[in-house]
Amino acid sequence: MYLHLGKGAMVNTDDIVGIFDLDITSQSHLTRAYLAAAEKAGEVVSACDDIPKSFVVCKRANQRTLYLSQMAAATLLKRAENGGL
Q1: DSSP collapsed to 3 states, 44-72
Q2: Which residues pair with 49 in a beta bridge?
Q3: Kind of pairing, strands 9-12 and 16-21?
C-alpha cells in the first residue's frame, strides 16, 4: 500500500519508520541535529510548497529518506491506517 505525502510524493507504507509532527519534535535539539544531518547527507525530499508540518522517515535497502510534508502528522497517520490513498 502507498501513502500520498503531497506534491506527488508517494511512499510504500512498508518503508515507513515513523511519522512525526514537525512543530512538536523540532523543539528538541536532538531532532534539529537529526534533521540537519539528514539534510547534509542529501536524504531530505520536500513534498510541499509551503511550510512543512510533518516529516516521514523511510528506510529501504539500508537507505534512509526523510520526506517533509505540509500535511499534519495526524492526517498522514489516518491515511496510512485507512489505505494510504
Answers
A1: EEEECCCCCCEEEEEEECCEEEEEEECCC
A2: none
A3: unpaired
11: three-class secondary structure by DSSP: strand
What pTM did the predictor assign?
Answer: 0.91
Return all residues near 75 (Cβ < 8 A) that are at least 6 apart: none
pLDDT digits (tens, 9 = 90+) for 64-78: 999 999 999 999 999
Query: Given the C-alpha cell 494510504, which residue does it identify?
Result: 84
User: Would you list the domain boundaries of the chain?
Assistant: 2-81
Measured distance CA(68)–CA(50) in Å, rounded: 10
CB 1 within 8 Å of CB 12: yes
